Amino acid sequence: MEQTVEIKSKINLNPSRVGKKYFVKTFGCQMNEHDSERIAGLFQADGMIQAQSEEHADILFVNTCTIRENADDKLYGTLGQLKKWKDSESDRRLLVGGCAAQKDKELVRKKAPWVDVVLGTHNLTNVINLLNQAEDWGPITEILDEISNMPTDAPSIRESQYSAWLTIQIGCNNSCTFCIVPSVRGEEISRRPADIVNEAKQLVQEGVKEITLLGQNVNSYGRDLRIDGKARPYFAQLLEKLNEIEGLERIRFISPHPKDFKEETLYAVRDLKKVCKQIHVPLQSGSSKILSKMHRGYNKEKFLEKIDLIKSIVNDVSLTSDVIVGFPSESDDDFIETLDVVKYSQFDSIYMFKFSPRPGTPAFDMKSDFIEKNIIDKRFIQLKELQTEISTKRYSRFVGSQQKLLIENTSKKNKNVLTGKIDGGHITHIEETDLEFGDLINVQIYDSTPFFLKARLI
Ligand code: SF4
Question: What's residue 150's pLDDT?
Fold first, then answer.
């Protein structure tokens, strides 16, 4: 796939590394994926070129995550396997960054001493400097408790030429008891609106048509900012500014927090032409008791009020959500409340997770309330069946309708099928060989499944 290089910072090239091949192996969420684009950008600005796979790489960066089940075991298992990779050629370099490195600090070094550089989420932009130091002096670990530079100061290599992540905020001020983010990503810091708008304009000049605003809690954007002593910019105002950018076609955002939705944000989604009518509303649980144990800052009733508010303002909005099944002390009745809220909300799709205790989070210490695995598995299947039924209905509403489709890729299963997204974010397939990536076309939807749509060119 074609790549785009965006150089924002001047880096002194290390002649011994120019032309070497790098590979970035990413685990976890969109924030990590975007961080990996920054790491790739820094490597490329240092003169390295991207390898097709880790086997062909001289420099390998493992961007770690702590969210998924058994993430720590998987990480140390991966690092164990990579020892062979590292040892097979003397000038190979292995770097480990991301949330697990930030959380475990010295543990990565202790368990995998063959790693050349261990760095945290707060000093990602220092990666080249650390690599230089490791080459001169041997393995190095640098984990900062506070952020040194915004990762957005780094250059970036994007996977897609037409869609781009745009970080508007890092860190999180909430304290959800299942989540490691506040301790590994630090407090919420918003970028200045002018910087975000400039970056968006730059992306458009490079051919980007769709941007996805990225942050842990995007709809609280700006609450830490004072611009020239005046009121903070709200998320809705940021959307307005971005909507004015000529050449930009679509704006999405992820992830908002249900408790922080303001009416003005919803009016912005409704009225601004380029803002997609797609809203992610992470439920996590439908039980007020469990939501309180999760520290989510809303109860079942408040969540349902938000759903009503969103639907009353944004006509035919596409809603998506996250649900955790089997949080400590979740009873059958609590789970039934989750099913009730899912039924009521009619999400187009949900991301479902089985609760997995993450060391370093308050939920990890709720051991006496942990739910048996077979109960979690059963509930998970029940939720999946319900959501598949709802998604079938929700996706079928598009059949016969006309939509705008941004072509982004070829189908993994069939190279003659192109895929992209319609405004609502639904994956849509089209069998048209004359189209190109980046085309924004009018299509008619002729078929649906609970997971994707099928379209024809109009
Ligand atoms: S809002 Fe909660 S789940 Fe989301 S990043 Fe912050 S602490 Fe984690």
Answer: 58
Residue type, 141: T
Residue 285, ligand 1, Cβ within 6 A:
no
Q: What is the mean pLDDT of the chain?
A: 89
Question: 257 in ligand 1 pocket by Cβ < 6 Å?
Answer: yes
Looking at mean pLDDT, say which of 184-193, 225-234, 348-357 comes out highest. Answer: 348-357
pTM for the full predicted model: 0.78
In a domain, 101, yes or no: yes
Domain boundary among 118, 142, 166: 142
Q: In which residue are the tokens 């543990």 written?
A: 107
Indicate whether residue 291 lines ligand 1 (CB < 6 A). no
pLDDT in tens, 314-351: 999 999 999 999 999 999 999 999 999 999 999 999 99
Q: Which atom of ligand 1 is nearest to the CA of 179?
A: 8
Q: What is the pLDDT of residues 132-158, one digit of tens each?
A: 888 888 888 887 776 655 555 555 666
**Ligand 1 within 6 A of 176 CB?**
yes
Other C-beta atoms lying within 10 Å of the C-beta of residue 440:
14
- Asked whether residue 242 is domain-assigned, the answer is no
Distance from C-alpha of 67 to C-alpha of 2, rounded to nearest angstrom: 31
Distance 136 CA to ligand 1 centre (A): 39
Domain count, the chain: 2
Mind listing the pLDDT tens digit for each residue in 62-82? 998 776 656 677 788 888 999
Q: Which domain holds residue 413?
A: 402-457
Mutate to test the pocket of ligand 1, among 29, 173, 174, 219 (most ligand atoms within 8 A of CB): 174
Residue that is last in its domain, among 142, 162, 178: 142
